Amino acid sequence: MRDVSAEVLALQPLPLFRRGPAGEVEADPGALLPGGGLRKFAWKVLDKAAGDGIGYHEAAYGPGHGKDAAGRAFALERDSGTTRLFFVWLPGALAGRLSRGALTAPLNFHVLFHPPTYEGDYTGSRPYWRGKLRADGVPYYVKLGIRYLCQDFKSVAHHVMAVTERDPNLAYVVPVADVAGNFADLLTPAGMLGALADVYRSLTTLLKGPAQFDRPGAVMLSAYSRSGDRLVQLMRQVGRTPFFIEHLTQWNGFDINLGDNDAQRLPELARLWTATRQWAQLNRRARAYLYTSYRSHYNQCLGDPEPGGRGWTDRADLDLEDVSWSDGPAKKVRGQARGLASEAYGSDARFGLVCLPVSFFRFYLLNHDKNGNEIIVGNQQRGWHDGDYDIGRAHGHGLFLRGMMSHALAHADPLFFTAKGTK
């Protein structure tokens, strides 16, 4: 892999890189950690005492993880495969340890699959990643990578909040898929581990440190929206192989969509959940967290054995009409009920399910159907929204990634963030 941060700087439609004092390309701390804090969920998502029934609040970066913890960002390109552009973030302390050759264990990775790039914005942006759409001159692949690295979904901020005071051993990676490949070269254990090994070697070269290890450490996988089928495909290969026994430690599904209707979605979800139970039998460190707006997804997983085998021992159901809304006047407006929210965890909290229904939100993805009719009647007046986060088309579907990534990271194995031998 080679560093293409300068090329991204020349293209970037959203802030990420800037010129340093000596003209060098560096990540802009204000782009990595925008504002003074992060809107995030508490340890439990549901909170009957909260105004809207959810424990969602502003958390300041604060001492120990302020702007000086923004870390380092890189744009890397490899010369093979269909997925060739990778955006990578490292905590500042970890970058220092890599440069000194001071890792005490292989580098851990969190990899996020973005939704597929089938829209015309991407198919018309040629060549892959460097190309701009002729209609508006925007390099959409670069924009996509920056959005999922830090800008729209504030993912770097989620990681900073999760690491807190621990000595981090975690790199966050956003691969950017070409239309034709759609991550196909990363959807085998060998393909994933090979790409992460390339990232590790490239980082050591850029940071002028020695390559201490010949393989990656622990791996966390996250999928959002229609990239959920990428997770299904990879998990269907579960078996007694190093990837599933030694490397993969957690997957997170952020409102994954596995088809156009339940007839398509539920069989795919069943395959994912069956594979997860098999994996949990092979790997005692296995963890999985599913966040969904689909009641059918939640019910299907809840009805199956908890992968750890001891059952769903920590459950909560909350009628979202039976709370004191933060927007009091909206509660009096006639319209569809916000619905039932649910949350469940296994006995040791290594597996979790969270459901916030579509009807809870002011608008989930769209406000109206193609005929101009309201999709959920009354939602624009009654539905929940975050008034402090009304940027662009911020919507309920996006909240599952914008708000819940920090929740999934907080529930991860602490050793995922910290190299062995450190505290």
Protein model, in words:
With 423 residues, the protein is an alpha/beta fold. The chain has a domain at 4-254 and 393-416. The chain has helices at residues 5-11, 29-32, 92-100, 120-123, 140-149, 155-163, 189-206, 228-235, 242-247, 262-282, 295-303, 328-331, 379-382, 396-402, 405-410; strands at 2-3, 17-19, 25-27, 37-46, 54-60, 72-77, 85-90, 108-113, 170-176, 219-224, 248-254, 287-292, 312-319, 340-346, 351-355. Helix 10 (262-282) packs parallel to helix 11 (295-303). The protein is globular. The mean pLDDT is 91.
Short description:
30% of the residues lie in helices and 21% in strands. With 423 residues, it is of the alpha/beta class.
Strand order of the largest sheet: 1-6-7-9-8-10-11-12-15-14-13
Q: Please outline the major beta sheet.
A: 11 strands, mixed
Q: Uncertain runs with pLDDT below 50, 5 residues or more?
A: none
Taking all Cα atoms into account, the compactness measure Rg is 21 Å
Helix fraction by DSSP (H/I, runs of at least 4) = 25-40%
Determine the oligomeric state from the structure: single chain
Proportion of strand residues = 15-25%
Number of strands: 15
- Tally of alpha and pi helices: 15
Write down the overall geometry.
globular
Structural class: alpha/beta
Order of helices and strands: EHEEHEEEEHEHHHEHEHHEHEHEHEEHHH
Mean pLDDT: 91
What is the terminal-to-terminal distance? 32 Å
